Amino acid sequence: MLKHIPLLNTLRTHTRQDYVADGLAGLIVAIMLVPQGMAYAVLAGLPPQHGLYASLLPLLIYGFLGTSRYLAIGPVAIVSLLTSAAVGSIVPIGTPDYIGLVLTLALMVAVIQTLMGILRIGFLVNFLSHPVLVGFSAAAAILIGLSQIKSVLGVKVPRTDYFYTDVIALLQRIGDVNWVSLVIGVVSVGVLLYFKLRSAADLRRLQISEKFVVPLSKLGPLLVVGIAGILTSVFRLDQTWGIAIVGEVPRGLPSLTMPNSSPVLLRQLLPTALAIGFVGYMESISVAKSLAARKREQVDANQELLALGIANFGAAFTGGYPVTGGFSRSLVNHAAGARSPLASIVTACLLAIAVVYLTPLFVYIPMAALAANILIAITGLVDVHSLKHIWQYDKRDSLALVTCFLAVLGFGVESGILVGAALSVFLVIWRTSQPHMAVLGKLPNGDFYRNVERHQVQTWPDVAILRIDASLYFANTAYLKQCIADAISRQPALKHLVLVGTAINDVDYSALEALDAILDELAEVDIRLHLAAFKGPVLDKLTQSGFMQRLAPHSNHLTTHAAIQQLGYV
Q: Rounded to two decimals, what is the model's pTM?
């Protein structure tokens, strides 16, 4: 039980102060999650209450199974966008079939993540490179922002599948702007920006106790929707000015829900389920590890994946939709002093109370105020620092970033994430298929050997020393042969070729065949092959294959210098 339910182990050492800290952090996150959850549900094409449902049982499950003290899971912007794009392309948004299909998507994500956790294959998410994710997130932020502008403007714009058609549709209805809705939206954005950027500093300037600074500075979303809802109710802005409001929200806890199990629909949703499963886990584990590192703590990546998968099972059967770890909420959880995942359980319990008793207060909340919450939340998706740094550092990564960015805007989020994944894999193959290989020479007054293009070194006309800076596998064997051919052509008097294997960690069967072919080809032109500084496990494989027995005697050397000494040059 202690192994599979980490919370039980944590509570064994919990003090009274720890319980108080978790309770306070859970309260603050709950206050933040009420307007956020409703807003993200609307972004996902669902009634607002489904954002709250997605924050109940999943949070409870993660509280028991998660290993991060600070991770706050629930609805997030990118997953909401992916959900809307995928399910909305199959059935109309707002229909019962739409809600049923969203539940199916949550169930598929749950199965994928749980299986990945059980099989301990979470490492697969590493094939989504950081530049690709930066490009995807930036494009997703633009799409999300565009989808919320219509709520701020108070206009009805039909959903389309492409960015440019959304822009055209919005511009065509720009004359129908509801000015009251626009004022509510703009003022809400201004207030939220103040709370995000300035409120904490102003509270400290007023000498407010530090323990109250975090709670007070995070009240912005609740104040915005609360005040906007009160004004709308008092002045009946929905009737007199026609602004869109949340409307009646069902009271009480969600009932048991059953996803759709049609094989045809499962096949249609599979690409999006994989995308959400991978992207959601990557976002969660990145946030969890980042916050844990600040306290020199660790999180169990595979246990996190398992906890996230089972939490999504909870969402699928209680009227929610796919959930993952939220960056902003987790930061608030950390800043509020959470000591364990118990804070998530407190948040879930408080949200349950809100769903049972407070839903009548949500009726008059303007959609423009909820849209403002999303617009401020997605500012964190555009990582300007990483955009600049990647552009300056590596043009290949920059090309991948820009390609993924344009693919998301041009072809939609599903196609964009598939393009991004394909680009990430392509970059891995591209880089490893042409690894760095250096021709070495001996530094003066020592036994060190360095790249002839970077240092003044001693070389010999009948010896070539080639260092291979990567493992050898099927994709780079042709490049290895080409580099050896180039070395032979540069040195017509070549008699000895020394391959330095300090960076070689593995040799697959295709590479072994290539080495066999190289050995034969060198023998035909009277060139002797030597190995230097190869690692033990690699030599073991080469010995078992019979390759080492084919080498001439005394052709395997412990170091590069030992090889040159053996040949009598030093």
A: 0.79
